[in-house]
Amino acid sequence: MQTRKQGRVACPLVVSSRKTMENTPDHYNKSDALRKSAEDCAICLDKVQEERTLKCRHSFCSQCIDSVFRVRPACPICNTYHGVYTGTQPPGTMTVTRSWQRLPGYEHCGCIVIQYSFPAGTQGPEHPNPGVRYSSTSRTAYLPACEEGEKVARLLRKAFDRRLVFTIGQSVTTGHNNVVTWNDIHHKTNMGGGPQCNADRFTDLLHRQNTTAELASSGVFGRVVGVTD
Question: What residues does the RING-type domain cover (predicted)?
Answer without folding.
Answer: 41-79
